[in-house]
Design brief:
Elements (H helix, E strand, L loop, with lengths): L1 E7 L7 E9 L2 E7 H7 L5 E3 L3 E5 L1 E6 L16 H13 L3 H17 L2 E8 L3 H9 L3 E7 L7 H21 L2 E7 L7 H13 L4 E5 L3 H9 L3 H7 L5 H4 L7 H7 L7 E5 L5 H10 L2 E4 L1 H6 L7 H7 L3 E3 L12 H14 L9 H7 L2 H7 L16 E5 L8 H8 L5 E6 L2 E5 L2
Parallel strand pairs: 1-4, 1-5, 6-7, 7-8, 8-9, 10-11, 11-12, 12-13
Antiparallel strand pairs: 1-2, 2-3, 5-14, 14-15, 15-16
Helix pairs in contact: 3-4, 5-6, 14-15, 15-17
Bound molecules: zinc ion.
The site of zinc ion has 5 residues, from loops.
Protein backbone atom coordinates (compact mmCIF):
# COMPACT_ATOMS: atom_id res chain seq x y z
CA UNK A 1 0.00 0.00 0.00
CA UNK A 2 1.20 3.50 -0.86
CA UNK A 3 0.00 6.46 1.22
CA UNK A 4 0.36 9.85 -0.42
CA UNK A 5 -0.22 13.43 0.72
CA UNK A 6 0.74 16.99 -0.16
CA UNK A 7 3.42 16.91 2.52
CA UNK A 8 5.26 14.09 4.27
CA UNK A 9 7.23 15.07 7.36
CA UNK A 10 9.62 12.22 8.18
CA UNK A 11 11.15 14.16 11.17
CA UNK A 12 14.60 12.62 10.72
CA UNK A 13 14.76 13.83 7.11
CA UNK A 14 13.65 16.86 5.12
CA UNK A 15 9.94 17.43 4.44
CA UNK A 16 8.81 15.89 1.15
CA UNK A 17 6.32 17.90 -0.93
CA UNK A 18 3.89 15.60 -2.76
CA UNK A 19 5.27 12.73 -0.77
CA UNK A 20 4.53 9.03 -0.56
CA UNK A 21 5.10 6.22 1.91
CA UNK A 22 5.27 2.63 0.64
CA UNK A 23 4.20 0.17 3.35
CA UNK A 24 4.43 -3.63 3.37
CA UNK A 25 3.55 -5.96 6.24
CA UNK A 26 3.22 -3.05 8.65
CA UNK A 27 6.69 -1.67 7.89
CA UNK A 28 7.84 1.33 5.87
CA UNK A 29 9.68 0.26 2.71
CA UNK A 30 10.26 3.65 1.06
CA UNK A 31 9.59 7.33 1.68
CA UNK A 32 9.94 9.69 -1.25
CA UNK A 33 8.32 11.80 -3.90
CA UNK A 34 4.92 10.61 -4.92
CA UNK A 35 5.60 10.51 -8.68
CA UNK A 36 8.73 8.43 -8.23
CA UNK A 37 7.28 5.99 -5.66
CA UNK A 38 4.16 5.44 -7.81
CA UNK A 39 6.25 4.95 -10.97
CA UNK A 40 8.49 2.37 -9.32
CA UNK A 41 5.56 0.47 -7.82
CA UNK A 42 2.91 0.55 -10.56
CA UNK A 43 0.88 -2.37 -9.23
CA UNK A 44 0.71 -1.19 -5.66
CA UNK A 45 -2.62 0.09 -4.35
CA UNK A 46 -2.54 3.66 -3.15
CA UNK A 47 -4.49 5.96 -0.87
CA UNK A 48 -4.18 9.70 -1.38
CA UNK A 49 -4.85 11.90 1.66
CA UNK A 50 -4.69 14.98 -0.58
CA UNK A 51 -4.37 18.29 1.21
CA UNK A 52 -2.78 16.73 4.27
CA UNK A 53 0.43 16.32 6.20
CA UNK A 54 1.69 12.86 7.11
CA UNK A 55 3.98 12.58 10.12
CA UNK A 56 4.99 9.85 12.56
CA UNK A 57 2.50 8.96 15.28
CA UNK A 58 3.04 10.87 18.52
CA UNK A 59 4.86 9.34 21.48
CA UNK A 60 3.35 10.11 24.88
CA UNK A 61 5.96 10.14 27.64
CA UNK A 62 3.57 9.83 30.58
CA UNK A 63 0.03 8.50 30.90
CA UNK A 64 -2.33 6.11 32.65
CA UNK A 65 -4.71 4.36 30.20
CA UNK A 66 -6.60 2.71 33.05
CA UNK A 67 -7.61 6.09 34.55
CA UNK A 68 -9.69 6.96 31.47
CA UNK A 69 -12.88 6.38 33.46
CA UNK A 70 -11.96 9.15 35.91
CA UNK A 71 -12.64 12.09 33.59
CA UNK A 72 -15.03 13.53 36.21
CA UNK A 73 -12.00 14.31 38.41
CA UNK A 74 -10.79 16.79 35.81
CA UNK A 75 -14.10 18.62 35.63
CA UNK A 76 -13.04 21.41 37.94
CA UNK A 77 -9.71 22.69 39.24
CA UNK A 78 -8.98 21.42 42.72
CA UNK A 79 -6.11 21.03 45.17
CA UNK A 80 -3.63 18.23 44.60
CA UNK A 81 -4.39 16.48 47.92
CA UNK A 82 -8.13 16.58 47.19
CA UNK A 83 -7.59 15.26 43.70
CA UNK A 84 -5.33 12.45 44.98
CA UNK A 85 -7.99 11.51 47.53
CA UNK A 86 -10.53 11.48 44.68
CA UNK A 87 -8.41 9.10 42.59
CA UNK A 88 -7.93 6.71 45.52
CA UNK A 89 -11.66 6.81 46.25
CA UNK A 90 -12.63 6.27 42.62
CA UNK A 91 -10.24 3.31 42.29
CA UNK A 92 -11.83 1.49 45.23
CA UNK A 93 -15.01 0.73 43.34
CA UNK A 94 -13.22 -0.67 40.28
CA UNK A 95 -13.27 -4.39 39.45
CA UNK A 96 -10.91 -6.02 36.95
CA UNK A 97 -13.36 -5.62 34.05
CA UNK A 98 -13.90 -1.95 34.91
CA UNK A 99 -10.15 -1.29 34.73
CA UNK A 100 -9.95 -3.11 31.42
CA UNK A 101 -12.88 -1.16 29.97
CA UNK A 102 -11.26 2.08 31.12
CA UNK A 103 -7.84 1.12 29.74
CA UNK A 104 -9.35 0.22 26.36
CA UNK A 105 -10.97 3.66 26.31
CA UNK A 106 -7.60 5.19 27.25
CA UNK A 107 -5.94 3.46 24.30
CA UNK A 108 -8.76 4.47 21.91
CA UNK A 109 -8.62 8.10 23.14
CA UNK A 110 -4.85 8.07 22.58
CA UNK A 111 -5.10 6.72 19.04
CA UNK A 112 -7.74 9.38 18.28
CA UNK A 113 -5.23 11.97 19.56
CA UNK A 114 -2.57 10.64 17.17
CA UNK A 115 -0.64 8.89 19.95
CA UNK A 116 0.76 5.60 18.63
CA UNK A 117 3.20 4.82 21.45
CA UNK A 118 2.92 5.56 25.13
CA UNK A 119 4.81 5.31 28.40
CA UNK A 120 1.92 4.06 30.46
CA UNK A 121 1.54 3.28 34.12
CA UNK A 122 -0.79 0.50 35.24
CA UNK A 123 -1.65 -0.76 38.68
CA UNK A 124 -4.28 -3.26 37.62
CA UNK A 125 -2.41 -4.62 34.60
CA UNK A 126 -5.26 -3.49 32.33
CA UNK A 127 -2.98 -0.96 30.58
CA UNK A 128 -0.82 -3.80 29.26
CA UNK A 129 -3.82 -5.86 28.16
CA UNK A 130 -5.43 -2.90 26.36
CA UNK A 131 -2.21 -1.88 24.55
CA UNK A 132 -1.63 -5.52 23.59
CA UNK A 133 -5.14 -5.89 22.16
CA UNK A 134 -4.74 -2.69 20.11
CA UNK A 135 -1.26 -3.69 18.86
CA UNK A 136 0.04 -0.40 20.21
CA UNK A 137 3.74 -0.15 21.12
CA UNK A 138 4.07 0.93 24.73
CA UNK A 139 6.36 0.92 27.67
CA UNK A 140 4.07 -0.40 30.38
CA UNK A 141 5.23 0.31 33.91
CA UNK A 142 3.72 -1.88 36.60
CA UNK A 143 2.81 0.49 39.39
CA UNK A 144 3.59 0.03 43.06
CA UNK A 145 1.73 2.34 45.43
CA UNK A 146 0.54 2.62 49.04
CA UNK A 147 3.25 0.53 50.66
CA UNK A 148 4.50 0.75 54.23
CA UNK A 149 5.97 -1.84 56.61
CA UNK A 150 2.58 -3.53 56.99
CA UNK A 151 2.41 -4.72 53.36
CA UNK A 152 6.00 -4.51 52.08
CA UNK A 153 6.66 -8.24 51.71
CA UNK A 154 3.37 -9.03 49.98
CA UNK A 155 3.87 -6.04 47.66
CA UNK A 156 7.33 -7.21 46.58
CA UNK A 157 6.09 -10.76 45.99
CA UNK A 158 3.10 -9.37 44.11
CA UNK A 159 5.30 -7.17 41.89
CA UNK A 160 7.53 -10.13 41.00
CA UNK A 161 4.46 -12.22 40.18
CA UNK A 162 2.94 -9.43 38.08
CA UNK A 163 6.20 -9.08 36.15
CA UNK A 164 6.30 -12.83 35.55
CA UNK A 165 2.69 -13.07 34.38
CA UNK A 166 2.96 -9.92 32.23
CA UNK A 167 6.13 -11.01 30.44
CA UNK A 168 4.48 -13.45 27.95
CA UNK A 169 1.89 -10.81 26.99
CA UNK A 170 4.54 -8.15 26.38
CA UNK A 171 6.70 -10.61 24.45
CA UNK A 172 3.83 -11.72 22.25
CA UNK A 173 3.01 -8.09 21.53
CA UNK A 174 4.96 -4.89 20.99
CA UNK A 175 5.00 -3.77 24.60
CA UNK A 176 7.90 -3.62 27.03
CA UNK A 177 7.71 -3.70 30.79
CA UNK A 178 8.97 -1.35 33.45
CA UNK A 179 8.46 -0.66 37.14
CA UNK A 180 6.85 2.44 38.58
CA UNK A 181 7.00 3.12 42.28
CA UNK A 182 4.27 5.78 42.42
CA UNK A 183 6.11 8.53 44.30
CA UNK A 184 8.40 9.42 47.22
CA UNK A 185 5.30 10.04 49.34
CA UNK A 186 3.27 6.86 48.79
CA UNK A 187 5.96 4.22 49.49
CA UNK A 188 8.36 3.71 52.36
CA UNK A 189 12.09 3.90 51.79
CA UNK A 190 12.34 0.10 51.93
CA UNK A 191 9.65 -0.21 49.25
CA UNK A 192 11.26 2.43 47.00
CA UNK A 193 14.61 0.66 47.34
CA UNK A 194 13.01 -2.71 46.56
CA UNK A 195 11.59 -1.25 43.31
CA UNK A 196 15.03 0.14 42.38
CA UNK A 197 16.68 -3.22 43.13
CA UNK A 198 14.14 -5.23 41.15
CA UNK A 199 14.43 -2.86 38.17
CA UNK A 200 18.23 -3.16 38.26
CA UNK A 201 18.20 -6.92 38.66
CA UNK A 202 15.82 -7.45 35.72
CA UNK A 203 17.17 -4.52 33.65
CA UNK A 204 13.79 -2.79 33.59
CA UNK A 205 13.12 0.91 33.04
CA UNK A 206 11.71 2.97 35.88
CA UNK A 207 9.19 5.77 36.19
CA UNK A 208 8.08 7.79 39.19
CA UNK A 209 6.02 10.92 39.86
CA UNK A 210 8.65 13.37 41.09
CA UNK A 211 8.54 16.86 42.57
CA UNK A 212 5.02 17.36 41.27
CA UNK A 213 3.95 19.68 44.10
CA UNK A 214 5.52 22.03 46.62
CA UNK A 215 3.77 19.91 49.26
CA UNK A 216 5.78 16.88 48.13
CA UNK A 217 9.02 18.81 48.65
CA UNK A 218 7.83 19.87 52.10
CA UNK A 219 6.86 16.30 53.00
CA UNK A 220 10.19 14.81 51.94
CA UNK A 221 12.32 17.62 53.31
CA UNK A 222 10.51 18.36 56.57
CA UNK A 223 7.96 15.57 57.06
CA UNK A 224 5.28 18.26 57.22
CA UNK A 225 2.66 20.09 55.21
CA UNK A 226 -0.77 19.38 53.73
CA UNK A 227 0.30 16.27 51.80
CA UNK A 228 2.09 14.83 54.85
CA UNK A 229 -1.09 15.29 56.87
CA UNK A 230 -3.25 13.69 54.16
CA UNK A 231 -0.86 10.72 53.72
CA UNK A 232 -0.38 10.10 57.47
CA UNK A 233 -3.99 8.95 57.72
CA UNK A 234 -3.32 6.17 55.22
CA UNK A 235 0.34 5.18 55.42
CA UNK A 236 3.11 5.03 58.03
CA UNK A 237 6.09 6.56 56.21
CA UNK A 238 9.52 6.75 57.90
CA UNK A 239 10.20 10.11 56.30
CA UNK A 240 7.17 11.67 58.01
CA UNK A 241 7.83 9.93 61.34
CA UNK A 242 11.44 11.15 61.25
CA UNK A 243 10.38 14.75 60.67
CA UNK A 244 11.70 14.73 57.10
CA UNK A 245 14.90 13.72 55.33
CA UNK A 246 16.34 17.21 54.94
CA UNK A 247 16.68 16.42 51.21
CA UNK A 248 14.75 17.30 48.10
CA UNK A 249 12.65 14.47 46.63
CA UNK A 250 15.25 13.94 43.88
CA UNK A 251 18.14 13.72 46.37
CA UNK A 252 16.06 11.44 48.58
CA UNK A 253 15.30 9.08 45.68
CA UNK A 254 18.91 9.21 44.53
CA UNK A 255 19.93 7.88 47.94
CA UNK A 256 17.62 4.92 47.34
CA UNK A 257 19.09 4.14 43.91
CA UNK A 258 16.22 5.49 41.83
CA UNK A 259 17.82 8.38 39.94
CA UNK A 260 19.58 6.80 36.96
CA UNK A 261 19.50 6.52 33.19
CA UNK A 262 16.60 4.03 33.33
CA UNK A 263 14.33 6.63 34.93
CA UNK A 264 11.64 8.86 33.49
CA UNK A 265 10.42 11.18 36.23
CA UNK A 266 6.95 12.58 35.62
CA UNK A 267 6.22 16.29 36.21
CA UNK A 268 9.43 17.63 37.84
CA UNK A 269 7.67 20.93 38.58
CA UNK A 270 9.60 21.60 41.81
CA UNK A 271 13.03 20.30 40.84
CA UNK A 272 15.73 22.63 42.15
CA UNK A 273 18.75 23.72 40.13
CA UNK A 274 20.85 21.14 42.02
CA UNK A 275 18.23 18.45 41.33
CA UNK A 276 18.34 19.29 37.63
CA UNK A 277 22.16 19.01 37.62
CA UNK A 278 21.96 15.72 39.55
CA UNK A 279 19.42 14.25 37.14
CA UNK A 280 21.44 15.41 34.14
CA UNK A 281 24.57 13.76 35.59
CA UNK A 282 22.72 10.51 36.29
CA UNK A 283 21.16 10.45 32.80
CA UNK A 284 17.54 10.52 34.00
CA UNK A 285 14.79 12.14 31.91
CA UNK A 286 11.70 14.16 32.82
CA UNK A 287 8.21 13.95 31.29
CA UNK A 288 6.57 17.34 31.66
CA UNK A 289 2.76 17.46 31.78
CA UNK A 290 1.68 21.13 31.58
CA UNK A 291 -2.11 20.73 31.37
CA UNK A 292 -2.23 18.41 34.37
CA UNK A 293 -0.04 20.82 36.35
CA UNK A 294 -2.34 23.69 35.37
CA UNK A 295 -5.52 21.83 36.29
CA UNK A 296 -4.18 20.75 39.68
CA UNK A 297 -2.69 24.18 40.22
CA UNK A 298 0.75 22.86 41.22
CA UNK A 299 2.96 25.28 39.28
CA UNK A 300 5.00 25.15 36.09
CA UNK A 301 8.06 22.99 35.41
CA UNK A 302 11.41 24.87 35.20
CA UNK A 303 11.69 24.19 31.48
CA UNK A 304 14.14 27.06 31.03
CA UNK A 305 16.56 25.36 33.44
CA UNK A 306 16.04 21.96 31.78
CA UNK A 307 17.05 23.51 28.46
CA UNK A 308 19.98 25.49 29.95
CA UNK A 309 21.35 22.52 31.90
CA UNK A 310 20.80 20.05 29.05
CA UNK A 311 18.47 17.80 31.05
CA UNK A 312 16.69 15.36 28.77
CA UNK A 313 12.95 15.99 28.83
CA UNK A 314 9.88 15.07 26.88
CA UNK A 315 6.15 15.67 27.04
CA UNK A 316 3.34 13.63 28.52
CA UNK A 317 -0.40 14.08 28.75
CA UNK A 318 -0.88 12.31 32.10
CA UNK A 319 -4.33 10.72 32.28
CA UNK A 320 -7.75 12.11 31.48
CA UNK A 321 -8.29 12.40 35.28
CA UNK A 322 -6.13 15.55 35.17
CA UNK A 323 -6.11 16.34 31.45
CA UNK A 324 -9.46 16.35 29.65
CA UNK A 325 -7.95 17.45 26.32
CA UNK A 326 -5.30 14.70 25.95
CA UNK A 327 -3.65 16.60 23.10
CA UNK A 328 0.13 16.49 22.73
CA UNK A 329 0.11 19.40 20.26
CA UNK A 330 -1.55 21.53 22.95
CA UNK A 331 0.98 20.28 25.54
CA UNK A 332 3.91 21.18 23.29
CA UNK A 333 2.43 24.67 22.77
CA UNK A 334 2.19 25.08 26.54
CA UNK A 335 5.79 23.91 27.01
CA UNK A 336 6.86 26.60 24.61
CA UNK A 337 4.72 29.26 26.35
CA UNK A 338 6.14 28.34 29.77
CA UNK A 339 9.68 28.40 28.39
CA UNK A 340 9.06 31.83 26.86
CA UNK A 341 7.60 33.14 30.12
CA UNK A 342 10.73 31.93 31.92
CA UNK A 343 12.82 34.04 29.56
CA UNK A 344 13.93 31.26 27.24
CA UNK A 345 15.30 32.17 23.83
CA UNK A 346 13.19 30.79 21.00
CA UNK A 347 16.31 29.65 19.17
CA UNK A 348 17.04 27.16 21.98
CA UNK A 349 13.64 25.50 21.81
CA UNK A 350 12.53 25.82 18.21
CA UNK A 351 9.29 24.33 16.89
CA UNK A 352 11.26 21.57 15.20
CA UNK A 353 12.81 20.56 18.55
CA UNK A 354 9.38 20.44 20.16
CA UNK A 355 7.96 18.32 17.35
CA UNK A 356 10.99 16.01 17.77
CA UNK A 357 10.13 15.79 21.47
CA UNK A 358 6.70 14.48 20.46
CA UNK A 359 8.20 11.88 18.12
CA UNK A 360 11.80 10.71 17.68
CA UNK A 361 13.19 12.14 20.90
CA UNK A 362 10.46 10.59 23.03
CA UNK A 363 11.06 7.30 21.19
CA UNK A 364 14.77 7.60 22.06
CA UNK A 365 14.04 8.24 25.73
CA UNK A 366 11.85 5.12 25.76
CA UNK A 367 14.38 3.07 23.79
CA UNK A 368 11.93 2.53 20.90
CA UNK A 369 13.76 4.69 18.35
CA UNK A 370 14.99 1.76 16.25
CA UNK A 371 11.38 0.95 15.55
CA UNK A 372 9.37 4.18 15.56
CA UNK A 373 9.40 7.96 16.07
CA UNK A 374 10.14 8.86 12.44
CA UNK A 375 9.03 7.93 8.93
CA UNK A 376 12.00 5.93 7.70
CA UNK A 377 12.51 2.72 5.72
CA UNK A 378 12.49 -0.26 8.07
CA UNK A 379 10.49 1.34 10.84
CA UNK A 380 6.94 0.51 11.86
CA UNK A 381 4.30 2.17 9.68
CA UNK A 382 2.83 4.22 12.53
CA UNK A 383 1.81 7.64 11.29
CA UNK A 384 -0.94 10.22 11.33
CA UNK A 385 -2.64 12.35 8.68
CA UNK A 386 -3.39 15.98 9.49
CA UNK A 387 -5.89 17.95 7.43
CA UNK A 388 -4.12 21.02 6.06
CA UNK A 389 -6.88 22.27 3.77
CA UNK A 390 -7.99 25.16 6.00
CA UNK A 391 -4.60 26.54 7.02
CA UNK A 392 -1.07 26.11 5.87
CA UNK A 393 2.27 27.46 6.97
CA UNK A 394 5.59 27.87 5.21
CA UNK A 395 7.36 26.05 8.06
CA UNK A 396 5.61 22.74 8.86
CA UNK A 397 7.03 22.61 12.41
CA UNK A 398 5.71 26.10 13.24
CA UNK A 399 2.44 25.09 11.65
CA UNK A 400 2.13 22.00 13.89
CA UNK A 401 2.91 24.00 17.02
CA UNK A 402 0.79 27.02 16.23
CA UNK A 403 -2.21 25.84 14.23
CA UNK A 404 -2.80 22.13 14.81
CA UNK A 405 -4.78 20.35 17.51
CA UNK A 406 -5.87 16.73 17.68
CA UNK A 407 -9.14 17.75 15.98
CA UNK A 408 -7.14 18.22 12.76
CA UNK A 409 -5.99 14.59 12.78
CA UNK A 410 -8.04 12.74 10.18
CA UNK A 411 -6.39 9.31 10.37
CA UNK A 412 -4.16 7.32 12.67
CA UNK A 413 -2.27 4.47 11.02
CA UNK A 414 -0.81 1.79 13.28
CA UNK A 415 1.33 -0.97 11.78
CA UNK A 416 0.11 0.04 8.31
CA UNK A 417 -3.58 -0.20 9.24
CA UNK A 418 -5.99 2.69 9.66
CA UNK A 419 -7.11 2.35 13.28
CA UNK A 420 -8.75 5.76 13.66
CA UNK A 421 -10.63 7.90 11.20
CA UNK A 422 -12.14 11.27 12.07
CA UNK A 423 -15.39 11.38 10.17
ZN1 LIG B 1 0.73 10.41 36.34
Amino acid sequence: MIYTADLVLPITGSPVEHGAILVKDGRIITVGERASVLRKNPREEFLDFGDALLMPGLVNLHGHFECAAFDFLASEPTSFSQWLGGIIQAGRGMERDDWLRAARKGVADSLAAGITCSADITRSGAGLQAAYEAGMPALIYLEVVAVDASNLMETVVDLLERLKSSEPVAQAGVQRLGVSPHSAYTLTEAALKACADIARQYTLPLSIHLAETADEVELVRGGSGALARAISDRLALEVIAAGGSGSTPAEFLDGLGLINSALIAAHGVWLSEDDIILMRQKGAAVAVCPTSNELLNVGEAPIGSFVERGLSFGIGTDSIASNPTLDLFVEAGKVRAIYKKQGGARSKLRSQMLVEKLTIEAARILGFDDDLGSIEAGKRADFIAIDTSAKRHANPYDYLLESVTKADITHTILGGEIVYENR
